[in-house]
Task: structure prediction
Amino acid sequence: MNLAGRVAIVTGAGRGIGKAIALKLAEMGATVVVNDVGDAEPVEAVAEEIRAMNRQSLTILADVSSSVDVARLVEETTAEFGKVDILINNAGIARDQLLLRMTEDDWDKVLAVNLKSVFLCTKAALRPMIKQRWGRVINLSSVTGLVGNVGQANYTAAKAGIIGFTRTVAKEVASRGITVNAVAPGFIETAMTQKLGEKWGEEFKKRIPLGYPGSPQDVAEAVAFLASEEARYITGQVLGVDGGLAISWA
Ligand SMILES: NC(=O)c1ccc[n+]([C@@H]2O[C@H](COP(=O)([O-])OP(=O)(O)OC[C@H]3O[C@@H](n4cnc5c(N)ncnc54)[C@H](O)[C@@H]3O)[C@@H](O)[C@H]2O)c1
Result:
Protein backbone atom coordinates (compact mmCIF):
# COMPACT_ATOMS: atom_id res chain seq x y z
CA MET A 1 0.00 0.00 0.00
CA ASN A 2 1.36 3.36 -1.01
CA LEU A 3 0.15 6.90 -0.32
CA ALA A 4 2.83 8.79 -2.23
CA GLY A 5 1.44 12.04 -3.64
CA ARG A 6 -1.52 12.08 -1.23
CA VAL A 7 -2.21 14.94 1.17
CA ALA A 8 -3.79 14.01 4.51
CA ILE A 9 -5.20 16.01 7.39
CA VAL A 10 -5.25 14.24 10.76
CA THR A 11 -7.17 16.06 13.51
CA GLY A 12 -6.12 15.71 17.15
CA ALA A 13 -2.76 14.31 16.02
CA GLY A 14 -0.58 15.73 18.79
CA ARG A 15 -0.67 12.46 20.74
CA GLY A 16 -2.35 9.06 21.08
CA ILE A 17 -4.21 7.47 18.19
CA GLY A 18 -4.06 10.59 15.99
CA LYS A 19 -0.28 10.77 16.29
CA ALA A 20 0.07 7.07 15.37
CA ILE A 21 -2.19 7.62 12.34
CA ALA A 22 -0.21 10.69 11.20
CA LEU A 23 3.08 8.78 11.42
CA LYS A 24 1.65 5.72 9.65
CA LEU A 25 0.23 7.74 6.73
CA ALA A 26 3.60 9.51 6.41
CA GLU A 27 5.43 6.17 6.49
CA MET A 28 3.22 5.14 3.55
CA GLY A 29 4.33 8.22 1.63
CA ALA A 30 1.65 10.83 2.37
CA THR A 31 2.18 14.51 3.10
CA VAL A 32 0.55 15.04 6.49
CA VAL A 33 -1.06 18.08 8.11
CA VAL A 34 -0.85 17.59 11.86
CA ASN A 35 -3.74 19.33 13.62
CA ASP A 36 -4.36 19.75 17.33
CA VAL A 37 -5.46 22.42 19.74
CA GLY A 38 -3.57 24.13 22.57
CA ASP A 39 0.12 23.54 23.12
CA ALA A 40 2.14 23.78 19.88
CA GLU A 41 5.19 21.87 21.10
CA PRO A 42 3.96 18.23 20.96
CA VAL A 43 2.21 18.90 17.65
CA GLU A 44 5.37 20.36 16.10
CA ALA A 45 7.30 17.34 17.43
CA VAL A 46 5.02 15.02 15.41
CA ALA A 47 5.56 17.13 12.29
CA GLU A 48 9.32 17.01 12.90
CA GLU A 49 9.19 13.19 13.13
CA ILE A 50 7.40 13.13 9.78
CA ARG A 51 9.95 15.45 8.17
CA ALA A 52 12.70 13.18 9.49
CA MET A 53 11.12 10.46 7.29
CA ASN A 54 11.63 12.77 4.29
CA ARG A 55 7.94 13.53 4.01
CA GLN A 56 6.30 16.94 3.99
CA SER A 57 4.39 18.03 7.07
CA LEU A 58 2.67 21.13 8.39
CA THR A 59 1.34 21.88 11.86
CA ILE A 60 -1.98 23.71 12.05
CA LEU A 61 -3.35 24.52 15.49
CA ALA A 62 -7.13 24.75 15.20
CA ASP A 63 -10.15 23.90 17.33
CA VAL A 64 -12.11 21.46 15.16
CA SER A 65 -15.38 22.40 16.87
CA SER A 66 -15.05 25.96 15.51
CA SER A 67 -16.24 26.62 11.96
CA VAL A 68 -13.81 29.54 11.62
CA ASP A 69 -10.84 27.39 12.69
CA VAL A 70 -11.89 24.49 10.44
CA ALA A 71 -12.18 26.79 7.41
CA ARG A 72 -8.63 27.98 8.13
CA LEU A 73 -7.40 24.39 8.57
CA VAL A 74 -8.58 23.38 5.10
CA GLU A 75 -7.62 26.71 3.45
CA GLU A 76 -4.06 26.60 4.82
CA THR A 77 -3.71 22.97 3.72
CA THR A 78 -4.82 23.66 0.15
CA ALA A 79 -2.72 26.87 0.03
CA GLU A 80 0.39 24.92 1.06
CA PHE A 81 -0.11 21.59 -0.72
CA GLY A 82 -2.76 22.33 -3.38
CA LYS A 83 -5.34 19.75 -2.30
CA VAL A 84 -6.78 17.48 0.40
CA ASP A 85 -7.03 13.76 -0.42
CA ILE A 86 -7.50 12.18 2.99
CA LEU A 87 -9.29 13.48 6.08
CA ILE A 88 -9.00 11.63 9.38
CA ASN A 89 -11.54 12.93 11.90
CA ASN A 90 -9.77 11.77 15.04
CA ALA A 91 -9.96 14.63 17.59
CA GLY A 92 -12.10 13.72 20.57
CA ILE A 93 -12.66 14.29 24.26
CA ALA A 94 -14.57 12.57 27.05
CA ARG A 95 -16.33 14.15 30.04
CA ASP A 96 -17.77 11.13 31.79
CA GLN A 97 -20.60 11.39 34.28
CA LEU A 98 -23.80 9.48 35.02
CA LEU A 99 -26.66 11.09 33.11
CA LEU A 100 -28.37 12.48 36.20
CA ARG A 101 -25.19 14.35 37.14
CA MET A 102 -24.18 15.32 33.60
CA THR A 103 -24.22 19.08 33.04
CA GLU A 104 -25.47 20.77 29.90
CA ASP A 105 -21.92 22.00 29.36
CA ASP A 106 -20.54 18.40 29.55
CA TRP A 107 -23.09 17.43 26.91
CA ASP A 108 -22.51 20.41 24.61
CA LYS A 109 -18.71 20.29 24.75
CA VAL A 110 -18.46 16.55 24.04
CA LEU A 111 -20.98 16.73 21.19
CA ALA A 112 -19.16 19.75 19.73
CA VAL A 113 -15.66 18.27 19.77
CA ASN A 114 -16.62 14.69 18.85
CA LEU A 115 -19.53 15.13 16.43
CA LYS A 116 -19.96 18.71 15.22
CA SER A 117 -16.26 18.68 14.33
CA VAL A 118 -16.84 15.73 12.00
CA PHE A 119 -19.60 17.67 10.22
CA LEU A 120 -17.45 20.83 9.93
CA CYS A 121 -14.21 19.14 8.82
CA THR A 122 -15.88 16.75 6.38
CA LYS A 123 -17.96 19.49 4.76
CA ALA A 124 -14.89 21.72 4.33
CA ALA A 125 -12.62 18.95 3.00
CA LEU A 126 -15.21 17.50 0.62
CA ARG A 127 -15.07 20.53 -1.69
CA PRO A 128 -11.49 19.91 -2.90
CA MET A 129 -12.11 16.13 -2.93
CA ILE A 130 -15.20 16.50 -5.14
CA LYS A 131 -13.24 18.69 -7.56
CA GLN A 132 -10.58 16.00 -8.02
CA ARG A 133 -13.06 13.10 -7.85
CA TRP A 134 -11.01 11.21 -5.26
CA GLY A 135 -11.12 11.27 -1.51
CA ARG A 136 -11.04 9.32 1.72
CA VAL A 137 -12.82 10.35 4.92
CA ILE A 138 -12.22 8.18 7.98
CA ASN A 139 -14.02 8.94 11.24
CA LEU A 140 -13.08 7.74 14.70
CA SER A 141 -16.16 6.26 16.31
CA SER A 142 -15.95 3.84 19.26
CA VAL A 143 -17.16 0.42 20.34
CA THR A 144 -19.09 2.31 23.03
CA GLY A 145 -21.05 4.06 20.27
CA LEU A 146 -22.30 0.62 19.23
CA VAL A 147 -23.09 -0.92 22.61
CA GLY A 148 -23.39 1.99 25.07
CA ASN A 149 -21.38 2.57 28.23
CA VAL A 150 -22.39 3.69 31.72
CA GLY A 151 -21.28 7.27 32.39
CA GLN A 152 -20.85 8.17 28.74
CA ALA A 153 -24.28 9.29 27.46
CA ASN A 154 -22.68 12.32 25.79
CA TYR A 155 -19.68 10.46 24.33
CA THR A 156 -21.66 7.44 23.11
CA ALA A 157 -24.32 9.68 21.55
CA ALA A 158 -21.55 11.46 19.62
CA LYS A 159 -19.85 8.22 18.58
CA ALA A 160 -23.15 6.63 17.48
CA GLY A 161 -23.94 9.88 15.64
CA ILE A 162 -20.68 9.53 13.74
CA ILE A 163 -21.87 6.16 12.43
CA GLY A 164 -25.10 7.61 11.03
CA PHE A 165 -23.17 10.53 9.56
CA THR A 166 -20.63 8.17 7.97
CA ARG A 167 -23.30 6.05 6.28
CA THR A 168 -25.24 9.06 5.01
CA VAL A 169 -22.29 11.00 3.63
CA ALA A 170 -20.89 7.79 2.08
CA LYS A 171 -24.10 7.60 0.03
CA GLU A 172 -24.02 11.31 -0.85
CA VAL A 173 -20.48 11.33 -2.28
CA ALA A 174 -20.02 7.78 -3.59
CA SER A 175 -20.54 8.88 -7.19
CA ARG A 176 -17.61 11.32 -6.82
CA GLY A 177 -14.99 8.66 -6.07
CA ILE A 178 -14.96 9.46 -2.36
CA THR A 179 -15.28 6.81 0.33
CA VAL A 180 -16.41 7.54 3.89
CA ASN A 181 -15.82 4.98 6.62
CA ALA A 182 -15.55 4.78 10.39
CA VAL A 183 -13.35 2.79 12.70
CA ALA A 184 -14.62 1.75 16.11
CA PRO A 185 -11.70 1.19 18.48
CA GLY A 186 -12.22 -0.76 21.69
CA PHE A 187 -9.93 -0.22 24.68
CA ILE A 188 -6.77 1.44 23.37
CA GLU A 189 -4.01 2.51 25.75
CA THR A 190 -3.78 6.32 25.50
CA ALA A 191 -4.13 9.36 27.77
CA MET A 192 -7.90 9.14 27.26
CA THR A 193 -8.22 5.63 28.71
CA GLN A 194 -5.62 6.29 31.41
CA LYS A 195 -8.13 8.76 32.88
CA LEU A 196 -10.61 5.92 33.45
CA GLY A 197 -8.49 4.73 36.36
CA GLU A 198 -7.23 1.27 37.21
CA LYS A 199 -10.59 -0.23 38.25
CA TRP A 200 -12.36 0.55 34.98
CA GLY A 201 -9.26 -0.30 32.95
CA GLU A 202 -9.18 -3.79 34.49
CA GLU A 203 -12.95 -4.22 33.95
CA PHE A 204 -12.56 -3.45 30.24
CA LYS A 205 -9.51 -5.65 29.80
CA LYS A 206 -11.31 -8.65 31.32
CA ARG A 207 -13.93 -8.40 28.59
CA ILE A 208 -11.54 -8.35 25.62
CA PRO A 209 -11.54 -11.78 23.92
CA LEU A 210 -7.97 -11.33 22.65
CA GLY A 211 -6.99 -10.69 26.27
CA TYR A 212 -5.05 -7.45 26.00
CA PRO A 213 -5.69 -3.76 25.27
CA GLY A 214 -5.01 -2.31 21.84
CA SER A 215 -2.28 0.15 20.93
CA PRO A 216 -2.62 3.36 18.87
CA GLN A 217 -0.63 1.51 16.19
CA ASP A 218 -3.37 -1.16 15.92
CA VAL A 219 -5.88 1.57 15.03
CA ALA A 220 -3.44 3.34 12.70
CA GLU A 221 -2.96 0.16 10.62
CA ALA A 222 -6.72 -0.14 10.01
CA VAL A 223 -7.07 3.55 9.16
CA ALA A 224 -4.12 3.36 6.77
CA PHE A 225 -5.76 0.49 4.91
CA LEU A 226 -9.05 2.40 4.56
CA ALA A 227 -7.08 5.41 3.25
CA SER A 228 -5.34 3.34 0.57
CA GLU A 229 -6.23 2.73 -3.05
CA GLU A 230 -6.64 -0.95 -2.15
CA ALA A 231 -9.74 -0.05 -0.06
CA ARG A 232 -11.47 1.69 -2.99
CA TYR A 233 -14.53 -0.60 -2.89
CA ILE A 234 -15.21 -0.13 0.83
CA THR A 235 -17.55 2.68 1.87
CA GLY A 236 -20.13 3.37 4.57
CA GLN A 237 -18.57 0.76 6.84
CA VAL A 238 -17.69 0.64 10.52
CA LEU A 239 -14.54 -1.36 11.15
CA GLY A 240 -14.09 -2.57 14.73
CA VAL A 241 -10.51 -2.51 16.03
CA ASP A 242 -11.23 -3.88 19.46
CA GLY A 243 -9.74 -7.32 20.11
CA GLY A 244 -13.30 -8.66 19.93
CA LEU A 245 -14.68 -6.36 22.65
CA ALA A 246 -17.90 -5.57 20.75
CA ILE A 247 -18.81 -9.25 20.27
CA SER A 248 -18.23 -10.05 23.93
CA TRP A 249 -20.10 -7.05 25.28
CA ALA A 250 -23.73 -7.79 24.55
N1 LIG B 1 -8.38 5.42 23.50
C1 LIG B 1 -9.42 4.64 23.26
O1 LIG B 1 -9.57 3.58 23.86
C2 LIG B 1 -10.46 5.03 22.24
C3 LIG B 1 -11.48 4.11 21.98
C4 LIG B 1 -12.46 4.44 21.05
C5 LIG B 1 -12.38 5.63 20.36
N2 LIG B 1 -11.36 6.50 20.62
C6 LIG B 1 -11.36 7.76 19.86
O2 LIG B 1 -10.13 7.90 19.18
C7 LIG B 1 -9.81 9.28 19.07
C8 LIG B 1 -8.42 9.53 19.64
O3 LIG B 1 -8.43 9.14 21.02
P1 LIG B 1 -7.12 9.07 21.93
O4 LIG B 1 -7.32 7.94 22.87
O5 LIG B 1 -5.90 9.14 21.10
O6 LIG B 1 -7.34 10.43 22.78
P2 LIG B 1 -6.29 11.48 23.34
O7 LIG B 1 -7.02 12.24 24.38
O8 LIG B 1 -4.99 10.83 23.70
O9 LIG B 1 -6.03 12.42 22.05
C9 LIG B 1 -7.02 13.24 21.51
C10 LIG B 1 -6.35 14.43 20.85
O10 LIG B 1 -7.39 15.28 20.34
C11 LIG B 1 -7.03 16.62 20.62
N3 LIG B 1 -8.20 17.50 20.66
C12 LIG B 1 -9.11 17.59 21.67
N4 LIG B 1 -10.01 18.55 21.38
C13 LIG B 1 -9.65 19.09 20.19
C14 LIG B 1 -10.17 20.12 19.39
N5 LIG B 1 -11.25 20.81 19.77
N6 LIG B 1 -9.55 20.42 18.21
C15 LIG B 1 -8.45 19.74 17.82
N7 LIG B 1 -7.91 18.73 18.55
C16 LIG B 1 -8.49 18.41 19.73
C17 LIG B 1 -6.34 16.54 21.98
O11 LIG B 1 -5.55 17.71 22.25
C18 LIG B 1 -5.51 15.27 21.83
O12 LIG B 1 -4.23 15.51 21.29
C19 LIG B 1 -10.92 10.04 19.80
O13 LIG B 1 -11.90 10.45 18.87
C20 LIG B 1 -11.48 8.99 20.73
O14 LIG B 1 -12.81 9.27 21.09
C21 LIG B 1 -10.40 6.23 21.55
